[in-house]
From TrEMBL:
Protein's UniProt name: tRNA-(Ms[2]io[6]A)-hydroxylase
Alphabetical list of InterPro entries matching this protein: Ferritin-like, Ferritin-like_SF, tRNA-Hydrxlase_MiaE
Organism superkingdom: Bacteria
GO biological process, one term: tRNA modification
Pfam families according to UniProt: MiaE
Molecular function GO labels: tRNA 2-(methylsulfanyl)-N(6)-isopentenyladenosine(37) hydroxylase activity
Amino acid sequence: MEFLQPVRDFLACATPAAWLDAAVQDLPTLLQDHANCEKKAAGTAMNLLFRYNDNDRLQTELAQLAREELLHYEQVRELMAKRGIAYRALPAGRYATGLRQHVRTSEPGRLVDLMIIGAFVEARSCERFSAIAPRLDDELKRYYTFLLRSEARHFQHYLGLAEQYANEPIAPRVAFFREVERELIEAPDDMLRFHSGPPAPASVAA
């Protein structure tokens, strides 16, 4: 799939094999957190719509993105229901917090950083859908393959918005967050989440 190459080029690393191994062994948690991620992505887009109400392009693109993310949320919930997986609360992972702690506080730096983070979140989701789909049953494989194009498009929308609203080249901030994102993806994690790192030794032993 040629359209995935820009996603792979954007990210500093591929998903560790250990994460893939753990994820396919705990599909209920994976699907639950995937649903949460879609809901949070829609909420993030809506919050940005209210905060930056005077940016026309942002309003148009993020309104569309919010609708798509909510549709994906509903679709994942339907998949869970078909499989008898009850929707339950899950503690948040460290991924989003690990990225957002570096957001600048003054504008337009804050908006630019949030857009860059959005691009990394969407790109990582796309990369993970691609990596895990071959390991899944036919239904989930079809669905995750279906999601690839929309997530790749979302990554490009966020990056384009960052470029539009920045008053300086964004390459240094992209490079900074690329390294932060790589560390979060490669560092061992105590909880399996859709954007978590490979399982820590203690969680494997458990």
